[in-house]
Amino acid sequence: MAFQKLEADPKLREKAVLKFWEEKRVFERSVRERDGRPRFVFYEGPPTANGRPHFAHLLARVYKDLFPRYKTMRGYHVPRKAGWDCHGLPVELEVEKELGLSTKAEIERLGVEKFVRACRNSVDRYIREWEKMIVRLGFWIDLAHPYVTYTDDYIESLWWELKELHKKGLLYKGHKILPYCPRCGTPLSSHEVALGYRRVSDPSVFVRLPLSHDPAVSLLVWTTTPWTLPANVAVAVAEEAQYVEVLFRGERLILAKPRLSAVLGEEALVLREFPGRELLGKTYQPLYPLAGSGAYRVVAGEFVSMEEGTGVVHIAPAFGEEDYDLGRRENLPLLQPVDRAGRFTGEFPLCAGLFVKDADPKRSWRKCWPWSLFPASFPRPSTVRSLRSMGRGGGYGFGGGGDRGPVGR
Predict the structure, then answer these.
(1) Tens of pLDDT along 200-214?
(2) Dist CA 157 CA 167 (whole Å)
(3) Are 54 and 128 contained in the same domain?
(4) Domain range spanning residue 301?
(5) 178-214 burial, b for 16+ CB within 10 Å, e for fewer?
(6) Are 137 and 60 in contact (CB under 8 A)?
(7) Quick one: 219 and 358 in the same domain?
(8) Which residues pair with 209 in a beta bridge?
(9) For residue 366, with 0-12 CB atoms within 10 Å meaning exposed, 13-18 middle and 19 or more buried, which class applies?
(10) Are 144 and 219 part of one and the same domain?
């Protein structure tokens, strides 16, 4: 057989290889001929079919192709099935842009069924684009029998799994703290929140909480999300850290010693110093007495930072994962005065019916330091144009954040 010189053009050479693989069914044979051998299981984390693939998608698929091929050459049976994630806000966002929609009310006027059909059509269109890329890249995966998350078979399999979990007593009713989009009325996945961030400014306040047994002395609390204050049910301190009671402009205040200089400067006079554990169990007068018994007391929190704030952390279990975990441990009430549209409920009459961010200037600041209302800047999902016109995929996390995260407290 005469030597055949390789085609000089890489593109033509690659197309010739792809054609050979397709005509000889090389991928299918590589799987079939190793049936019965030890299995190497590969799960394709499905891409969301809400747009055309880009370079980062190509790079990920190189790695996803590399290891199954290697294991195949080592003699393993490596079946791999393509999958398409067709649910979630990324798909809906794409369709909203196509249809010129921007609110949930506009979707409802269009009709939910029409919107769902438009989403399915969009997904099908992008799946075809992805399949072209996968074939051209030479990524070996079963495209003929994919799992597609909008099909009845797939959805029914999930319901079957839930039924089996329920039969085994593994399901329970409870709460989970998640980022939340009040415009959509839905929680957000970490992927949806990570669609992008921008920096925004929010009000930051210092709050006095007078001790019940000695109202002349107040705990000094700092928060960057004052809208969560009506849901306050406790404050947390670091039990091993040192705290001080100081006299500042005629008032006696308690805060962490490492934060004294940064918060009050050199003007404060230290009256006494003591460990945080001495504060545990003490009760205080709440800003808004909305909770019942067991609330408004000092508890220990291992997350309390000496790097920011006052070392006295406002706890609202409905609005922070660490807060919620602490609330369960300390048997604190779960106070949730915000509805699914992000408006204060009748539980908080002062701002009932107002969106939480619109209520900021209307809230009573009678126990806040007038000089302490300053903007705090931190990342928010970039799809939040403003909270009043919040886009899908953006949310203020009515179940996330605190002094310890991007949402602040």
Answers:
(1) 777 778 899 999 999
(2) 15
(3) yes
(4) 197-389
(5) bbbbbbbebbbeeebbebebeebebbbbbbbbbbeee
(6) no
(7) yes
(8) 219
(9) exposed
(10) no
Cα gap 246→119, rounded to integer Å: 60
Cα–Cα distance measured from residue 135 to residue 144, given in angstroms and rounded to the nearest whole number: 12
Among 401, 393, 406, which Cα is nearest to 186's? 393
Return the pLDDT at 117.
94
Contact between 357 and 370 (Cβ < 8 Å):
no
Q: Is residue 3 included in any domain, yes or no?
A: no
For residues 296 and 300, give the distance between their C-alpha atoms in angstroms, rounded to a whole number. Answer: 13
Q: Give the tens place of pLDDT for each residue, 300-354.
A: 999 999 999 999 999 999 998 999 999 999 999 999 999 988 999 999 988 889 9
Beta strands at 234-237 and 197-210: parallel, antiparallel or unpaired: unpaired
| Rounded (to 5) percent helix, strand, coil in the chain | 35, 20, 45
In the block, tokens 């200037």 appear at 361
Phi, psi torsion values for 107, nearest 5 degrees: -65, -45
Q: How many CA atoms lie within 13 A of 4 on its CB side?
A: 4
Distance CA 49, CA 130 (A): 8
In a domain, 405, yes or no: no
Contacts of 385 (CB under 8 A, 6+ apart): 391, 394
Question: 57: phi > 0 → left, psi -120 to 50 → alpha, else beta; which?
Answer: alpha
Q: Quick one: CA dihedral 307, 309, 313, 318, positive or negative? A: negative
Query: Which CATH number characterizes residue 374's domain?
Result: 3.90.740.10
- Domain check: are 95 and 146 in the same one? yes
- Asked, for residue 103, whether it belongs to a domain, the answer is yes
Rounded to the nearest 10 degrees, how much is the dihedral formed by the CA atoms of 23, 27, 29, 34?
170
- What's the number of domains the chain is made of? 2
Task: Kindly give, in sequence order, each residue whose CB lies less than 8 Å from that of residue 232, ignoring residues fewer than 6 positions away.
Answer: 286, 287, 288, 296, 314, 315, 316, 335
Q: How far is CA 390 from CA 152, 285, 338, in A?
A: 32, 35, 16
Q: Give average pLDDT by consecutive 10-residue segment, the chain, 409 residues.
A: 68 91 95 95 85 87 94 96 86 89 87 94 93 94 93 94 96 88 79 71 84 95 89 96 95 96 92 97 93 92 93 94 94 93 90 86 49 40 29 35 34
CATH number, residue 23 = 3.40.50.620
Residue at 123 is within a domain: yes
